[in-house]
Structures are given as structure tokens and as C-alpha cells.
Amino acid sequence: MMKLALGPVLYYWARDTLLDFYQEIAATPVDIVYLGETVCSRRHNLRLQDWLDVAAKLTAAGKQVVLSTQVLIESESDLKSLRNIADNGSFMVEANDMGAVHLLAGKMPFVAGPHLNVYNDRSLSLLATLGAQRWVMPPEMSGAMLAPIQRMRPAGMETEVFVYGRLPLAFSARCFTARAHNLPKDDCQFRCLDYPNGLSMRTREDQPFLVLNGIQTQSARTYNLIGELDTLRSMGVDVLRISPQIAHSAKIISLFRTCMDQPCTPHSALLQMDKLMPDGMCDGYWRGSAGLEQSHISSKT
Amino acid sequence: MSPEAKLDLVCPAGSLTALKAAVDNGADCVYIGFRDGTNARNFAGLNFDASAAREGIRFAHSAGAKVLVALNTYPQTGNWQRWQDAVDQAADLGVDAIILADLGLMQYAAEHHPQLRRHLSVQGSATNYEAINFYQKQFGISRAVLPRVLSMAQVEHLRQHTSVEIEVFGFGSLCVMVEGRCTLSSYVTGESPNTCGVCSPAKAVRWKQTAQGLESRLNDVLIDRYADTENAGYPTLCKGRFKVGEETYYAIEEPASLNTLELLPELMRIGIAAIKIEGRQRSPAYVAQVTRVWRDAIDACRREPHNYVVKAAWMAELNKVAEGQQHTLGAYHRPWK
Question: N or C: which terminal CB in chain B sees fewer CB atoms within 10 Å?
């Protein structure tokens, strides 16, 4: 049976917002929760001990908790935070950089995160020998690219697919949110706090295009594979990942859960989701076309 | 000369003519790719078939220069064989090193061609020494090319914590994003550097003169619009003008070239092994011009590191070929971030 996971919060939210959010999540039908700051080392509203406290509460609520590591590791202080997570001793870790894999390899089981660039079964098998028990498919991969990996994946390896949320498309050394405010990154005044769903970047024709989230760039459209649940299940995908947004995450979890557990037409779920996605949706990556494209979803029951 | 003063000049070549231009103008190494998606400059009409590669290697070796082959995209399970064949072909041709990003391919190369030097491509996204030491331990890499995201202080710190040779970018088009961790291109066009070896591919570009100005589009997404007085640039999607709030500006990055000539003494002092020039997609004339300037600069810096100054003539030559006729120190200079 497929499990439902909530990915790490990619935005910078106020401390109380984060704590309230996870309190709400504890009561939702999600099986796995990924915790931690993966985007920017300057975001400190929760420290490792705070995350561990949240993790304990979610564990008590029956969730499997995984601690996610920062994707772009540059400085010694980034490495120090990484080592503290790798050595936490209680929770599984999602490695989002090969430096994290290096620290975890042979020591404890880990999740190979979506930014490790695993595009083939050989890379996946190698990570399995180092201790990976689950991997998250890079979001730009299509179903057709996943299928042969599924047939050849190492025994016991779980496959997780990013199925809902604004797509994390790129990481940079530069902070685009600070740039938008003419501030240097080192003195960003934590402007990301003002954009709990990211800062919208539009084309000169005023079309929503991308979303600036500090050093990360996301799609404006929400990637949504709720119409593909049957295919995902038939391919043997083990875990579906929902990416948190500031509003409606519990509702989205509930809609996915319902569609996973009982017969459901994508159309009815989509009707309810329509207003929950800020700038429309897309599913192009899964279909092997441009990521921003959206296929026509049949309204037949 | 002190041992750390050795600094290889690694120059790009998208054709045999460009390779010869690089060697003739003083490149220590030339890097090339084969004519398919196995490398990150998979452009029509560019790159080397087997016979051109053989001739290029012969030419370079006879002049004492090395040839590196970039196999730095990510094979998929369904097309793996093409990448494996490319590794075998590079080994058979007698190249001096292969530049790799994919874990599986690195493992294959280490097992089947252990004598062939392996370099970690910039597409491998290794921005810290733990990551670089991972590739060294697992696959015995000799060199790592750093993504263009670290400040000078961070480069130095990293360099002190690994025995892997470090290669950095010195000049050329600037990737603002961490290489290997950017899929903006496939989001818009379906093709990205990781999977297809292209960014903002030419086949997705459309130009149109409109009442508001000349528009460039990538798969219908408006990347920029130019007034009659402005120079239009290639619509690499991160270098267009977009709206954030009420402002329209280069929200991600201006069209500009990275140029680190002024950092040369510092790069030598901290023990950088090689400087890479970007631009396999550029003309043989670009390669000749840029190689000549950097050869002069490196030689001058090695002779007298303390008296090294960037000559105005060098900058003038480089600015002629710089993207947007501008240059930047990029992330090496912390305020850029």
C-alpha cells in the first residue's frame, strides 16, 4: 500500500507558524514527515533541538520522521549543522548532498533525497550499498524514465515521488529574495518571512512564471499528479510526497489520502483542489514534456 | 617556481579547429565532448566524432597538451549503454581524463578503466569538501571542478580539506545556479543540462518584432523584450527581464561573463590546480583570443606573482567576447550573492 509523505517546508515561516503547522499535521493522515531547513542556512526560527522536539511529537502521533539536510552546503558552519543532523542518533536522515551521503554511508540507513541526481538504476544500486533505503525521484524525471528503474531497483529500496507542490527547480549561491529588495544576502533582513509561499516572478506579460524562495527558484504552477495515482501504484511507487504550502496543506493531504485509499476520479478531487493552488497546475514532467505543461484530464467517471 | 604555482589552463573546444586554436595559443588542456547527449554542450553541429577526436588528441599530444572528454550528463536506465560506450570510446582513444557527473558512470569507469583519470564535473554539484572526498573515496577521482557558487574564502577552505585537485572556472558565461541542480530549462522546454545536455535550447527560441519591441520567447514564455536602442541577447532563461512586485529587471542575473583575471595570484597562492575557460559552443576565434590572454596572464603571474597586475589590453580583449559585453567576479566576490 502506498504511503503518504509530507516534504520539508521549503519556505521561511515564523516560529509559531511552523509549530502550529506541525501540530495540525500530527492529526492528518500522513505517514511520513520530513523535517528541517533545506534551503537557507540563515533561517534559524527553529534550531536542531526544536526540530527534534517536533519530531518527537510527530513520532508520538504515529508518524515516521525523517530529518532533511540542506541542499547547498558551502561553509564550515553548514557542514557543522550537517554533522549534527547526521549524528542525531534517533531519526533517519534524508541526504540532499553527496557530503551528507559521505557522512552517513555505512553508518546509518538514509533516504537519498530528490537533489542527488539519481537518474538510473546503477546510481541507485550504489547508494543502496552505502545504506540508502529509500530514494526520492528527481522531480524532472518522467514516468517513462522511472519505469525501467522500478524494474531493476535493488531489493528493499523504496521509491518516493514528488506528487504535489511548487517544483523546486534550482538552487543558487545568490539570494533572489534579497536581490529583489536590493539587499545583500548577508544582510537580508529575513525578507523571506514576508513570502510564506515564495515571491512571485512574472513575465513582462504579467504571466506568473517562477517563484523566488531565497536561493531557491520554484515553479509558479503547482505540480499535481493526483490524476496519476493508478499509474503510480501500478509502477510500485511506495511513497507519494506532498510539499507544504502555507494554507490548505491538511486539506490536500486529506484529498490525496482519500483518492489513495478508495476509488476516486481525479476530476472530483481536482475540482476541490482548484482553489488551493495559487497559480494553476502542471504535470508536464511526469509525461516527459516541458514541466510547466498541463495535460487534459478526463472528466469521465 | 613553487609547486603550488603550477596552474593548468583548461580551454574549451567544440570543433577540431577550436581545439587547434586552443593548443596553438597555449592551452595546457583542452576539453571536448562527443556528438550526442553524453555531454553538457549537446548542440547541433558541435563536438567531435571518433575521427575528429583522434586527430585532435594526436595534435594536442604532439604539442604537449592534454585532452579531456566531458561525459557529464546523467544517463538514464533506458539509454545507459550510450554513456557506457562513450566511456569505453574515450579510453580507447587514449584521452588524458574523462569528466563525469553520474555516480553509476563513475563507478563503471573506475572498475573498467581504472588507469584513466576521472575528474568530477561541475555538473556533479560538489560545493564542499565532504562531497568531494566522497567521490575520492568511492571512485578515486583525481580532480573536482567547483560549481560557480563559492566565495574565495570558501574555495580556499575547501582546498585545504581535500587532497583532490581543484579546478575552478575563470572565464565565460556565468551559470547563476548551482550546476547540476538547475532544471529551469526542462521546466520551460522539456530539456535540461542533466538529462539532455542543453540549457534553453535553440529549437525552443522564437524572436518576434512587436509594437512593444523585439521579443524573445522560449517555448512561448516571454524571456525578454528589447527597445530599438538595446542589444538583444540569447534568451537563456535565467538572464531575461521579469517582474517582481512592480519592478521589471534582471531578477536572476544580468547577461555577463565571469572574469577572474584579477584573482589569479590568489588562486595560485591557495593551490588551485586548474582554471577552466567556459565556451565549447563558442567560435574558434573566441577560443584563440581567450586562451591567448589567459596564457599571458598565467605566465606573468607565475613569473612575478607579487607584481602581477591585470593589463588593460587583456581586459579589452576579453570584454570583446564577453556576454553582454560585461564581466563580473560572480560568487568569488561575496557581495554578488
Answer: N
* Distance (Å) from the alpha carbon of B292 to chain A's nearest alpha carbon: 30
Is the per-residue pLDDT at B227 higher than 60? yes
pLDDT at A139 (0 to 100): 98
C-alpha distance from A227 to closest chain B C-alpha (Å): 19
Q: What integer is the mean pLDDT of B318-327?
A: 79
Q: What mean pLDDT comes out for the span A120-132?
A: 98
Mean pLDDT, all residues of chain B: 94
Query: Which chain B residue is nearest to residue A174, measuring alpha carbons?
Result: B337
Residue in A73, A101, A122 nearest the CB of B104: A122
For residue A157, the SS3 value is coil
Task: Give the CATH number of the domain where residue A25 resides.
Answer: 3.20.20.70
What's the mean pLDDT in A253-278?
89
pLDDT (0 to 100) of residue B5? 55
The domain tally of chain B equals: 2
* Residue A231 domain flag: yes
- Report pLDDT for A264: 78
Residue range of the domain that includes B236:
200-249
- If asked whether residues B109 and B234 sit together in one domain, one would say no
Predicted local distance difference test score (pLDDT) of residue B325: 65
A171 → closest Cβ in B101, B178, B331: B178
* Residue B220 and residue B137 share a domain: no
Q: Which residues of A touch B245 (CB under 8 A)?
A: 180
**Chain B residue closest in CA terms to A221:** B187
Interface test with B, best of A110, A117, A212 (most B CBs within 10 A): A117
Q: Do the domain assignments include residue A295?
A: no
- In-domain check, residue B38: yes
Name chain B contacts of A144, Cβ cutoff 8 Å. 78
Chain A interface disruption, residue of B181, B198, B223, B239, most A CBs within 10 A:
B181
Residue A42, all three cell numbers = 540563515
Annotated binding residue B29? no
Instruction: Please indicate, yes or no, if residue B181 is contained in any of the structural domains.
Output: no
* B123 is a domain residue: yes
Q: Helix (H, G, I), strand (E, B), or coil: what is residue A4?
A: strand
- The reply, when asked if residue B182 is annotated as ligand binding, is yes
- Based on the domain organization, do B243 and B260 belong to the same domain? no
The answer to whether the beta carbons of residues A12 and A193 sit under 8 Å apart is yes
pLDDT of residue A67: 98
pLDDT, chain A, mean: 95
pLDDT of res. A297: 65
Of the candidates A99, A140, A205, which has its C-beta nearest B134's C-beta? A99
Q: With beta carbons under 8 A apart, name residues in chain B contacting A145.
A: 76-78
Give mean pLDDT, residues B45-51: 93
Whether residue A275 lies inside any domain: the answer is: yes
